[in-house]
Amino acid sequence: MNETKTSELISEVSEIKKSNWFLSDNPILRYITFSALYVAQGIPEGITYFAIPAWLAMNNKTPIEIASFVAVIGIPWSFKILIAPLMDRFTILSMGRKRPWVIFGQLGLIVSFLAIGLVHDPLNNLNGLMIAGFFISFFGAFQDVATDGMAIDIVPLKEQARANGLMWGSKTIGTALSLVIGTSLINLLGFTTAVSSLSIAVAFIILFPILFRERSGEKLMPWTIGKPSKQSKNAQLKSWKQIFKSLLKIIILPSTIMMGLASIISGFMYGLVDTLLPIFTIQELGWTNTSYSQVYSITTVVGGFIGMFAGGALVDFLGNKKMIIIYLIATTVLIASLALLPEFWKNDKFIFGFILLYYLFYTLLCIAIFAACMKLCWRVVAATQFTLFMALSNMGRASGSGLVGTLKEIMSWEYVLLCTAISPLITIFFIKYIDFKKHRKSIEEFTIQ
Fold it and tell me: Can you tell me the distance from the alpha carbon of 196 to that of 296, in angstroms, rounded to the nearest whole number?
């Protein structure tokens, strides 16, 4: 009898130990895996959105040429809304609802990131550079949709603000480190060697979705033993009609519409600032691409670390809506101050302080908005709905990036910055009309029906 009890106890302990390697059962493993996947998005983004534009600016490319490159690589992020329903409808369910798509997206990201290093004479072949950058963004967006979908499925509601802080902070740090390291390697070893070296880190991160399953009993790979979990089978949507009917119900709610409009306008601001900063600092203030990348990296790493450990906590303590409005007001004042104080532009400490504060508010704002978007999601179509918010934001971002060159052609930097400062003010107007309680009540009525 004692032997039987001992055997059962050993079996239970063994099962507990095994469960520690499944994302659904291990919070620490969840945080590490999702943070690593967001680092994998940040590395190519640091090169394409920041290092390459700064490098082009150093080599006397015009603001319109640089803005065009950034706008083109931003386009695939608007396709996310087309990708998400595909992932909700089809998958290898025995491997998990989203993990197969995460692996596929990460593989594409590795290949496309290697491919951009093979573009011949990139300074005089901007079309080739744009095409390669487009595919990096496409697979980056693909991996992002799958990762967000897996996070919504796996991470409990009470952990989502904290998880968003860690994920977005990790992406920010990955972007910053890849920018400073990539810029140094480009200047020392050349474009091809620099990109090829950084792609190794992106390749290594694929081990996380390969080694760690969503839930117990699922297959590690298509050819291994395993079966779909009960949770995955219950959550999997069976038809396109079911997906789009459910999505239509949730997107016509007032709070969904307000958040969608806020996402577009805030994304527009991100695109303007991200594109104008390297052009402004290098061509107007006389910085080098190395000095810009170092300042950007330092400030975003600081913002990333603060966001990782404080972003989610502040949202939990003071609430999504209040924190978003605070960050938007602070960002408006900050950008307007830079526009109205041109006599301080030659003061490197002043510009450093501006960049530091902007990327701190940017990181905290992204964490608060992402947490709010998740809060507005109906779990039946959560991945597609969340992706819709992100696609709208990236649509605004691409538009803002493409507009920088045109604005600079018709007005001075002071007025370009003042135009940028209007965006967060408009965003506040839409955020104020979001009602989380009323929205949640509507979702409960959908569920009852």
Answer: 22
Q: Evaluate whether residue 423 is within a structural domain.
A: yes
Residue 141 contacts residue 86 (beta carbons within 8 Å): no
Token pair 């990327």 is found at: 359
Q: Which two tokens stand for residue 126?
A: 């901007």
**Does the residue 162 lie in any domain?**
yes
**How many CB atoms are located within 10 Å of the residue 249 CB?**
18
Domain limits for position 219 = 24-448
What is the C-alpha to C-alpha distance for residues 353 and 448, in angstroms, rounded to an integer? 52
Cα separation, 57 vs 278, in Å, equals 7
* DSSP-assigned letter for residue 433: T
Of 411 and 296, the one with more pLDDT:
411
CATH number reported for the structural domain that contains residue 350 in this entry: 1.20.1250.20
Among 296, 258, 267, residue whose Cα is nearest residue 395: 267
β-bridge mates for residue 22, sequence order: 213
Closest alpha carbon to 173 in 312, 52, 303, 289: 303
pLDDT digits (tens, 9 = 90+) for 236-252: 777 788 888 888 889 99
- Determine the distance from the C-alpha atom of residue 437 to the mean position of all C-alpha atoms in its chain, rounded to a whole number: 27
| Number of other residues whose CB lies within 10 A of the CB of residue 62 | 15
Count of C-beta atoms within a 10 Å radius of residue 310: 16
Residue 157 burial (10 A CB sphere; 0-12, 13-18, 19+)? exposed
DSSP string, 219-245: -SSTTSS----HHHHHH----HHHHHH
Nearest to 209 by CA among 12, 40, 424, 416: 40
**How far apart (Å, rounded) are the C-alpha atoms in residues 415 and 176?**
28
Distance CA 186, CA 127 (A): 20
Q: Specify whether the CB–CB gap between 243 and 381 falls below 8 A.
A: yes
> What's the pLDDT tens digit per position in 52-106?
888 888 888 888 888 888 888 888 877 777 888 888 788 888 888 889 999 999 9
* Contact between residue 53 and residue 69 where contact means Cβ atoms under 8 Å apart: yes
4 lies in some domain: no
Residue 329 lies in a domain: yes
Q: Beta partners for 213? A: 22
Kindly report the pTM of this predicted structure. Answer: 0.75
The three-point CA angle 161-163-168 to 5° equals: 95
Dihedral (CA of 67, 73, 74, 79) sign:
positive
Domain count across the chain = 1
The answer to whether the CB of 301 falls within 8 A of the CB of 179 is no
